[in-house]
Amino acid sequence: MISVLKSRRRSWTVYGWLALIAAIAGLFRFWQLSVIPPGLHYDEAFNETYALRIYRGQAAPIFITENNGEEPLHVYLTAGLFHLIGPTPLGGRMVSAAAGVVAVVVAYFLGAELFRESESQSRARRIGLLASLVMATWYWPFHYSRIGMEPSLLPPVAMAAVLFIWRVVRTRRPMDAALGGAFTSLALYTYTAGRAAPLVAAAIVVHRIIFARPLDRRWWINLGIGLAAAGIVYLPLGLFYARHPEWIFLRVHQVSSPALGGSGALPSVWSGVRATVLGLFWRGDRNWRQNLSGRPAFDILQAAFFVVGLAVCARRWRKGAYWFLPFWATVGLLPTALSEYAPQFGRAIGATPPLAIVVALGMWSVATLPGSFSRSRRLRTGEGWGVRALVIGLAFAASTGWAFRDYFFVWARSPQLFIAFDVGLRAIGEYASQLPTDEPVYLSPVPGDRYTLSFFMGDDATRLRSFNGRRCLVFPARTQAPTHMIVVVRPGEDDRSLGRLAHLFPAGQPVWRANDREAPYAVDFRIPTGETASVAPGRPFRADFGHQVELLGYDLSADSIRPGETLTVSLLLKSQSPMTTDYTGFVHLTGPYSVGTPRRLWAQRDARPCDNSYLTTRWQAGEIVWDDSSLTLPVGAPPGDYRLRIGMYNLATGARLPVTAAGNTVSDDSLTLTRVVVKE
User: Fold this and answer.
1) Which positions ≥6 away from 98 have C-beta within 8 Å?
2) Largest CA distance in the chain
């Protein structure tokens, strides 16, 4: 009776420590989650936007075929959270953070289970607690637990699968077998790298079949139960892949083909493996979204403990889980070792559980080392906690401090995060979503259907009339309501639209600004109601295209050019009525035949308006599109008189819009604007 009470008291003590570790994990993952990371990255916003569709009953995918294909579990969990607290940009991050805390808790049970057959129960529990502690404050896992993306789900689900598969060997309970199979298949719904989970599960089973004979009837029954549970969970995804086999390896091919394709496959693989191993100890992922650029996966203390733990695994590889942990870690690292941009920590997230447990094993081995040289029975048997608590405590404090500093004080304050997490786009989306719905909102040069914008606009891609202001300008001929022209003015974006708008609408003025630190990022130029654009083309020229588009005039960079030079044509086009056809515009420069080069078309640009950014199906009646086209005359073009011709046509059918100029219909549905002289 006394031994039972002692055992229960020890269990409650362990669970008390586990609760404390889980609280620390929650602090690392939820503290300042609304502002760190800043913004809302494109991939996070995609998950949020798709979760919004599920929340509204507009979608129910088994596999998400947008954004290069994506497993759906994270999106469904985010949609479920939306039902509890409503749509919020924090939804995906809260799911990831919660998954990170769950992973910390499961790490204890997994570590305790893996070493239960090779160590005493108390030692196995302590190694499990250390594994939980490592997962709680290790920079790599908690960094990903604060990003609203699917990789964060793989560690807890994969650990649960291994836990129950390993446990069923000891308990022989059918429920453990069913849960092991179910979680193995569930890992396939988390992230592309989760496809390694069945391989890890199969390794455990095969190892048992080879080295744990004889296997009785009950063992085979449990194996059948596990396989049946795995099949049931996998069935919806399996049926989808059967109908759409192209999605099975599409993403894998996209990220691995640069590394594995071609005659240089072996050097590429070696380079990826080398970069992955060095990423653990020397130079890690350089993507600012995924890591403090270049920070290795392990700090110096974790690296030392990992080496010790790996040595212990090598020494005892025939016992218990010592063979399994290096195998699992290797399988988990393969997705980045065999793909581009190694080491890419997101693709290797499945390796974090075994790596953390090996680090914990190394910590325990170092902490118990004094017992090997002591005559004290308590130290030799591993029951003395003083020295080991000091060793573990100091190491934990140092690693935790480094991780906390590197994330919250170095990485979080890095200026690179502004672009890495689309901070400016989030600011635009939040601002534009608050504007009255009857006030038109134009945006340049960012596409309005970017997911970071779509989420805040309620997944309404038509609310923002976006165009590429580097190549054109879109504006109303006369404003019927206050009109907002949001321009991203950051260097390299759109540095000319604001100046043009100020000239066209003198009464307009900037009313909002978003900054990247002190420099302006975006400006809203607001045009009052009833303002008429001061349109004054350098060369007025009236023509009608199918009673749908009117040419108001054009500008020309030069009347004469030489071979090798570029001619810029700016067309002022006005929409007369909404269009249901996506038209392509053309600007052609035709000239004389040349000996040896029998052609008349010497330069051309065929493209949808605004460099393919503002399709005619989006044009509103009364809008003006100021569209630029550049034609480069090839070297060797003969001198002489050339003609500049324009027109519009349906790319699907080739049919051109009829052209009328000065009341006369043009015969070939193309309009000659002017003569251009080509000099020698």
Assistant:
1) 29
2) 110
Under a CB-based contact definition with an 8 Å cutoff, are residues 487 and 523 in contact? yes
| Nearest C-alpha neighbor of 156 from the set 115, 120, 110 | 110
Q: Which residue has the higher pLDDT, 305 or 396?
A: 305
Tell me the torsion sign for CA atoms 291, 293, 297, 298.
negative
Write out the DSSP string of 30-58. HTTTTTSS-S--HHHHHHHHHHHHHHTTS
Cis ω on the peptide bond leading into residue 343 (within 30° of 0)? yes
Token pair in block for residue 95: 């799911």
H or E element at residue 552: strand 549-556
- Helix 2-30 and helix 91-114, axial crossing angle in degrees, nearest 10: 150
**Contact (Cβ atoms closer than 8 angstroms) between residue 74 and residue 150:** yes
Residue among 377, 330, 324, 392 nearest 127 (CA)? 392
Task: Give all strands (DSSP E) within 617-662, no chain letters.
Answer: 623-632, 640-650, 659-661
DSSP-assigned letters across all residues of 564-603: T-EEEEEEEEEE-S--SS-EEEEEEEE---BTTB--SEEE
Query: Could you give the CA distance from residue 451 to residue 459 in angstroms, rounded to a whole number?
Result: 8
Three-class secondary structure of residue 649 per DSSP: strand
Residue 551 binned pLDDT confidence (cut-offs 50, 70, 90) = very high
CA angle 377, 381, 386 (to 5 degrees): 80
Find residue 646's DSSP bridge partners.
587, 671
> Which residues are registered as beta bridge partners of 607?
585
Q: Which of 131, 128, 1 is nearest to 9 (CA)?
A: 1
Each residue's pLDDT tens digit, 570-608: 999 999 999 999 999 999 999 987 655 556 889 999 999
Please give the model's pTM, rounded to 2 decimal places.
0.91
CA distance 671 to 657: 11
Q: CA–CA separation, 138 vs 140, rounded Å?
A: 6
pLDDT tens profile 26-74: 999 999 999 999 999 999 999 999 999 999 999 999 999 999 999 999 9
- DSSP E strands, 169-321: none
474 contacts 408 by C-beta, under 8 angstroms: no
* Count of beta carbons in the 10 Å neighbourhood of residue 635: 9
